Amino acid sequence: MHTISTSPRSLLLGALAAAIATLAGCGGGGGIWVGVGGSQPPPVTPPPPPPIANPLYLVSAPSPFAAGCSGSASNGTLYVNAEVEPYVAVDPTNANHLVGVWQQDRWSAGGARGLLSAASFDGGKSWTRTPLPVTACGGGTAANAYSFASDPWVSIGPSGIVHAISLSFDANDTAILATRSLDGGRTWASPSTLILDGPNYANDKESITADPGNPNLVYAVWDRGPTNSNAAPATFARSTNAGASWESARTIYDPGSSAQTLGNEIVVLPNGNLLDLFTQIDYPASGPQTAAAMVIGSTDKGLTWSAPIKVADMLPIGATDPETGKPVRDGSDLAQIAVAANGSVYVTWADARFSNGQYDSIALSRSSDGGATWSAPVAINPADHAEAFEPNIHVRADGTITVSYYDFRNDTADPNTLPTILWLTRSTDAVNWQESAVAGPFDLDYAPYARGLFLGDYQGLTSMGSISEPFFVMTNNSTSNRTDVFSAPQAIVTTMLNLMTRAPMVHSAAAPLLPISSTLQARVAANLARLRQRREAVPRSGDASPPPVFHP
To answer: Within a domain: residue 179?
Structure first.
């Protein structure tokens, strides 16, 4: 076990002064944008980097895994000390208690040597790290001594029990493992195997959700399908005793033999109903493959599920280095979901419809009737001709909608660097959005390369009362320590922006009411094909060929 207590990068008074100066001049990421999706010309030179008013806290540390801990197993190039794909949860019984998880020591061809967890009891300032026992490197028993792990997720129930989940795998097997902690994330129980498949089936993109209204109920969901077809139904398992044991896994939605689900994620509405959000990717016999954000619902805690309801078509083209064309593995085939205390539901994803297929913006749709109907998508980030990617969403207890995302608005013509910024935008009405920089610019070119520059298919975002908490990966200027996980409690900027009348503002704007062009459809289909190839053991020759086992 390793413990680190890190100091903020800037003192509180200096951060406050920077926030006031920024707001007074509306500089950096400030200004007022009207009509996202407009046609203003791109700037000749990038704007100056925005000042970062809030402190950052380092969460990760040098890898605790010993050389050779997974035996002779390998999966491409090993990036020791590279952390990617973090997620975080806050304890409903103690707002200063957070638990995060991430992939530790990423392989280029898929997965990592293990998953790490970190617990904080002071609002994200200091962290105690512990490996999850889901791989051999993480201390798994013989039954759980897998070589690789991916897709970490964490949730904390109403009694404070912490639940984590892993996709653990070897060359021919994929397993979904769930583990729990009874001491706030300091130690973890031996995992329960929710499903184990050999080479004929693959499991992918799991998540775990503790029911906030019942400490005994925990839900897990993922996609599972035969490796010789395009099918991957949504698969579900449930615990009724706070994760001590689990019911048998079963299919809850099957889109058919020529379609798959991906990125299943369950949220619990204030009335106790469940919603499962997922991307449905269709592989028609003729025509391009397509993607849509979909939900299914349950009114009986997961025993039965409704027919699917479409949230919106998803039209991402994916992010690339503007100068070199190097791909960014950005999880653009995934959507994220959040629920407000009043029952409103919000879904966000990357989408190119607002620029007529030139670049991805951050799209948002909402439902005020429990997921039965959804608003038309709107863009919620500036129309500055910069690629934006990997949105994450959370609704605070006070009703403020928060969305974090990366973008390239400070990119330069230098092909040797890729300046990237993490932003946090927030709104009380889903129309007017205030944006501030969380971290950066940092050079994305230092990220581990996993069939694309890779920070993870998602990042973490939660809140502690009125304090938003991005939990994310940023690169270092080092090939021996390419990335680290950071915590960035957003207290100063959030407070000051709400008090100032000249706050940076974005007005959400709907997409043009025009048919989707064939060019955009083709770019979306090509991006979906690339994303699928990046999650597989070997590249595919085409949609008609049988996909091999996923290596996410």
So the answer is: yes
Query: What's the alpha-carbon Rg for the chain, to the nearest Å?
Result: 21
HEC-encoded secondary structure of 290-311: EEEEEEEEECCCCCCCCCCEEE
Q: Output the six-digit token pair for 27.
A: 């500089």
- Provide the token pair at 475: 């690169």
The tally of domains found in the chain comes to: 1
Kindly state whether residue 550 falls inside one of the protein's structural domains: no
Task: Tabulate helix, strand, coil % of the chain (nearest 5).
Answer: 10, 45, 50
Range of the domain at 285: 11-66+80-534
Max alpha carbon distance in the chain (Å)? 61
What's the token pair of residue 311? 């949230």
Degrees (nearest 5) of the Cα angle 186, 105, 539? 130
Tokens of 56: 């950052």
Assign residue 370 a region: left if phi > 0, alpha if psi is -120 to 50, beta otherwise?
Answer: left
The whole-model pTM stands at: 0.89
| φ/ψ of residue 193, rounded to 5 | -90, 110
| Residues of the chain falling short of pLDDT 50 | 1-41, 43, 492-503, 537-550
Q: Which two tokens stand for residue 481?
A: 């320590």
| Predicted confidence (pLDDT) per residue in 517-527, tens digit | 889 999 999 99
Closest among 225, 128, 99 to 174, alpha carbons compared = 225
At residue 509, the pLDDT reads: 73
Residue in 428, 440, 434 with CA at minimum distance from that of residue 494: 434
> What is the residue type of 254?
D
Q: Are 472 and 485 in contact (CB under 8 A)?
A: yes
Listed in sequence order, the residues at least 6 apart from 51 whose beta carbon sits closer than 8 Å to its beta carbon are: 18, 19, 21, 22, 27, 28, 437
What residues contact residue 408 under an 8 Å CB cut-off, 6+ apart?
319, 322, 386, 387, 388, 418, 419, 420
Tens digit of pLDDT for each residue in 10-52? 333 333 333 333 333 333 333 222 233 344 445 456 777 777 7
State the DSSP code for 327: B
Which CATH number is 94's domain given?
2.120.10.10
**Angle at CA of residue 60, ends 59 and 64, nearest 5°:** 145
The answer to the question of residue 547 being in a domain is no
In a domain, 72, yes or no: no
**How many residues are there in the chain?**
552
The torsion angle over the Cα atoms of residues 169, 542, 262 and 192, rounded to 10 degrees, is -20
Which one-letter DSSP state was computed for residue 232?
A: B
